[in-house]
Amino acid sequence: MDAVVDALAAQQAELSDLLGDLTEADWKAPTRCEGWDVADVVLHLAQTNEMAIGSATGRLSEVVAELTEGAGPAGSVDEGAALIVDRERGLPRGELLERWSTGASRLLAVLDAMDLSTRVTWVAGELSARTLATTRVAETWIHTGDVAGALGITLPLTDRLRLIARLAWRTLPYAFSSAGRTMHGPVAFRLVSPSGVAWDFVPGEPVVTTIRGPAADLCAVAARRIEASATALEGEGPDAADVLALVRTYA
């Protein structure tokens, strides 16, 4: 199994471990996703896994059509995600858990069987299947944290964060473009892993902006779960403030 698919499997397993013994009250616990409880977060992940399977198998448009039938128009990706959760909210807990588990396993099988350099269509446009898999690691990690937080559980940080930090670094041009901003030049990330190892993401061109600090902080900022000002991250260069404001791990 490729390393990124293996990381996705491990991240899915971490969430599955949390979901295994939830009470009805746990499923209804509010999360840091505004207006969503634990069940809504799991439904969202199940739906986006189905979209990812559609992307990897050339059926994204059909899957999106099925998920959005009767949901109405959306003005943004976030609005679209909220609409399809609203459309299916209230599924029986057993059915929801089975849907999450089945979709997660199916996604792993599809990704493991394909050439990860294959270009596929995704919400943000065309990307490699490897990048698609990495976005699933990132989103599953983000929402695993949402569920854990709702349950009052603190999860250990792992080296899977390296994939997420690198994704955030590589997609900076997309983040700036989406915000209508222009970068002054190449950006470097000089991060420290949870175990204290240096993780440096440095372009092959002269760097004009550098972000330094804990990788966990960078990933949390990119996930829009904390403001950069509340972390140990530091930046220098003309784009430092914009990088910390715009960095992201998803479309």
Briefly say what this structure is.
Helices cover 54% and strands 11% of the residues. With 251 residues, the protein is of the alpha+beta class.
Overview of the structural elements:
The chain has eleven helices and six strands. It has 251 residues and is of the alpha+beta class. The protein has two domains: 3-151, dinb family like domain (Four Helix Bundle (Hemerythrin (Met), subunit A)), CATH 1.20.120; 161-246, Nonspecific Lipid-transfer Protein, Chain A, CATH 3.30.1050. The protein has a four-stranded mixed sheet. Strands 1-2 form a two-stranded antiparallel ribbon. A hairpin with a 5-residue loop joins β3 and β4. α3 packs antiparallel against α7 and α7 packs across α8 (161-170). 37% of the residues are buried.
